[in-house]
Amino acid sequence: MKKGILYPVGTPIGNLKDISLRALELLKKVSLIAAEDTRHTRKLLSHYDIHTSLTSFYEYNQLRKIPYLIKKLATGEDIALVSKAGMPGISDPGYHLIKEAVKEGIEIIPIPGPTALALGLVASGLPTQSFIFEGFLGRKKVEWLKKLNRLKEEERTIVIYEAPHRIRKILPEIRKILGDRQIAVARELTKKFEEIIRGKVSDVEAVFKEKKPRGEFTLVIEGKPPLST
């Protein structure tokens, strides 16, 4: 029996117009869409009049859902994998399904779409020719400190994601451990209230002492400056 294909599909990170014709075509023709947030994905599908069946696939049900989805793929069903926003498999549980599908000899065909990682980096004004992506630093302070200490000597531009409720706590730790480097903080990319704040880490700290952080954040941090001669 011919196996199905797993399609990781890039979806908008804010503006619903940021989806390709290819992605829309694919979402209509697959047997099933595995979605990190079904309520969020239903809004997108409704906007484009797509009626494909949905199933949830997120951090806390992935162990149960991976065998279910692999079985469907193995019996010939094509499945689209979508995250809450952006490209699935980047800082979300989609990676684990893709990894298992590869092990089972299932074909993976990615459908390109927007990602806050690339948009934040391009708009930062910091070097883009070489960079490192660290995803989220972690939920606990001990995790932040461990990752930041590991990045102290990193000379490439550093890109991380962060939640709004942690920004005020994490920025001082970045300044203490990495130094008062140049940083660009992008929030609500592609949305109505998109904003990119650039300056030294201390400058951005001062901004968020005056205003409440809102939205999802992408932080682009200057790599370790070369030693002056």
3D structure, described in words:
The chain is an alpha/beta fold and 229 residues long. The protein has two domains: 5-108, 3-Layer(aba) Sandwich (Cobalt-precorrin-4 Transmethylase, domain 1), CATH 3.40.1010; 116-221, Methyltransferase, Cobalt-precorrin-4 Transmethylase, Domain 2 (2-Layer Sandwich), CATH 3.30.950.10. Helices cover 36% and strands 20% of the residues. It contains eight helices and ten strands.
Features:
229 residues, alpha/beta, Cobalt-precorrin-4 Transmethylase, domain 1, Methyltransferase, Cobalt-precorrin-4 Transmethylase, Domain 2, 2 domains, 5-stranded mixed sheet, elongated
Q: Please give the largest β-sheet.
A: 5 strands, parallel
Structural class: alpha/beta
What radius of gyration results from the CA coordinates?
Answer: 19 Å
Order of helices and strands: EHEHEHEHEHEHEHEEHE
Tell me what portion of residues adopts beta-strand conformation: 15-25%
At CATH's second level, what is the architecture of the largest domain? 2-Layer Sandwich
| Helix content class | 25-40%
What is the fourth-level CATH superfamily of the largest domain?
A: Tetrapyrrole methylase, C-terminal domain
Strand order of the largest sheet: 3-2-4-1-5
Low-confidence stretches: none
* Number of separate strands: 10
